[in-house]
Design a protein that fits this description.
Shape: globular
Distance between the termini: 51 Å
Number of helices: 10
CATH class: Alpha Beta
Radius of gyration: 18 Å
CATH topology: UDP-N-acetylmuramoyl-L-alanine:D-glutamate ligase
CATH superfamily: Ribokinase
Order of helices and strands: EEEHEHEEEEHEHHEHHEEEHHH
Number of domains: 1
CATH architecture: 3-Layer(aba) Sandwich
Structural class: alpha/beta
Helix content: 25-40%
Strand order of the largest sheet: 5-4-1-8-9-10-11-12-13
Amino acid sequence: MKSLILGTFNIDDISLPNTQLSKVVGGAASYAALASALFATTGVGGVAGNDFPKEFVSQLEEKGVDISNIQYVDSPSFRWKAMYSADLNNLKTTYQSMNASKELDVEKINGRSKTAKVVFFSNLDPNHQLKMIEKTPKHVIKLLDSMDLWIEEKRDVLKKVLKQVDIYFVSEHEASILIGKQLPLHDMITEVMRLGPRVVVIKKGRHGLSMYGELGTLAIPSYPLAHVLDPSGAGDSLGGATAGALARLGKFDFESVATALFMGSVVASFVIEGYTHDVLLNLTLDEVLNRSEFYLKQLPNTDNMLIDNI
């Protein structure tokens, strides 16, 4: 196993401008595992409740994901309900209940996880993240994502996790909650870096992402799409694809991280073209690479700019 994903398995209700999705499969682990599996052998760990569709777990297995670290409990799955604005740029959580996710037993994550080159600690209770990260060998590349709920309620535990993280995915809003105040972006990133992560990736939604930290800086705009259906899971897919690509590349340097983040951004662009996991379940690495090459030709670079003539 080269990439290990840890996160939640949800049952979601999502209100979109043109449709209502009711009791659909969601959760950070679901999206991230499928995205990672495009690039590397991938395992996934988390808790599935008694209402979580076994058909979806079978689909994960069909895509080559090792499902041996999925734990099943006799209680409802993590429930999340949310509403998107008419332009899909704003999301409001209207209801959530941890349910089965509270019962994750990190000690039961089996030995195969020790062979991972990269671990993505996706959206999950920081207490679980801390227990698992303390079991993870130091040489393993560690990626982390979270959400405003955990940042607000378990900031102290999250800070202990951040001390051991290589890449931290966070939005500007989440970063301001984490440091407890609103600052100019540069100062806010400096404050987050002081908490321990080697690289901070600022997620900007439709505006792409920016990377900061010891490897240098990088800006990746979003792939231009004329039509977006469902942004759900885009951030989880970004993290999962980044983990899988890094596992495939096998290095932690500027070129490798830049490439992995770019691949993650491209995978996320596919995800939002469909509802929930529809696109991911059928997406191939060739399709990702083809879009990547096409996108790179659209970006300004030394081959298509006349800077020397200015």
